[in-house]
Amino acid sequence: MFKDFTETDPAAPAPPAGAAADWTVPQNWHRFTGEEHATWDILFARQQEMLRGRAVAAFEEGLDVLRLSRPGIPEFGELNERLHRRTGWTVVSVPGLVPDDIFFEHLANRRFPAGNFIRSRSQLDYLEEPDVFHDVFGHVPLLALPAIADFMQALGQKGLEALDLGMLDRLARLYWYTVEFGLAREGGALRIFGAGILSSFGESRFSLDSAEPRRRPFALPEVLRTTYRSDAFQTGYFVVESFEALLDAILTADLEALYAEAALLPDLDPGRA
Ligand code: HBI
Ligand code: FE
Q: Which of 31, 74, 113, 183 could pair with 94 as two cysteines, CB 3.0-4.6 Å apart?
């Protein structure tokens, strides 16, 4: 699991040395060691096996059209040729967590920031910050699907607006319960589409098979009121019926009105009965 990366410093720190004003850095692919590439391969093989029949169909298609199953950490130049051709998205390299405004500005411009490092071999299941495996294996395949590509861009735009309104905590819940921990119903079966689950060995089984967590139909006003935790498996998930419906929800909602409405109501616990 990873820590709550929504709590970045509002006093917008300067980018670290070597990073551009938008916090991007060259991927410098040749710098990855053989051990680091092998770490990717271990994680990839383990997740691909675990996710068989568990991930939404578009995830498998994305892995395929982006040729992500070739060994080693993907080289972004090559990955971007395929991804950009499909949906106009590109992956950019960042040193780690970036400030909220920078993050959403990238998404609003169809650039997905990916951590320029990989977890250590001794910590395959623990993530302090999103690394290249979480970001590229978890998030990027679905960016090859037009509805998700558009949804992610809309999250970027709405994230920038929410920052201005002082409502980022609410928008972050929408991000969390969809892009990170979303489930979908496909042909009557529950499937995973959130990157936080897709990139987690333990939670990819737990989220679908365990009787513990609640699974509720996705409803935007309810999501905006639902708290989450970032240091344990979720106690509740939201299930979308289609990505087109999800996209439509964010594009047609009056988020400012929903934020105001939510502010008058108590927060909801994701694990409630
Ligand atoms: N930075 N690199 C990186 N990756 C993220 O997912 C990220 C971030 N900065 C801010 C942020 N996410 C959050 O504010 C959103 O997930 C809500
Ligand atoms: Fe993520």
A: 113
